[in-house]
Amino acid sequence: MGKRSAAFDEIAALAKQRIMIIDGAMGTMIQREHLEEHDFRAEVLKDHPKPLKGNNDLLSITRPDIVYKVIFSLIYSLFGFINKTEEYPPAATDPRYIQIHKLYLEAGADFIETNTFSGTTIAQADYETEHLVHEINYESAQIAKRACGDIQKETAFKELVKAYGDQARSLLQGGVDVLLVETVFDSANAKAALFAIRGLFEDE
Known about the structure:
With 204 residues, the chain is mostly helical.
């Protein structure tokens, strides 16, 4: 536990190069969703004796989708790519997206804070939910890490799509009659190539 992580060294090195940005408030982002008592209870706390509305940290357990939810994954199945009919990816304002962590990351945040403003037994005592403190903190950390991981995957996928799109465009301009995606060792690359080619034909 006392050993410094590799991530810490990377952060320290980056901080010497530029100003790093932390995310904004979690509470006000949650408030705009106009949640009700049942959102803070779900099945796990449906019989809890005290009101829980306003205990935002509980949402990491009862409504993790509020903290971070991705309904459309950037890594679609091949079938999904070929048969998609909706805008992809959906706009950040799309009501199907409730994704506080991801919105901050897409806005340029280098750090996102966990949803643990009241993640201590002292704070949770107001709601008689001290027994959930470990789960609140653990799940909040997992959600934040998943958000960062998904952003990294999306960035890598977008780079693949652009690379294959540039290649396909040049091949078409050079006069090829057929574009063949083959000898691919990673299915994500094949999906990116097919997505890029389809997008190229739709745009042009």
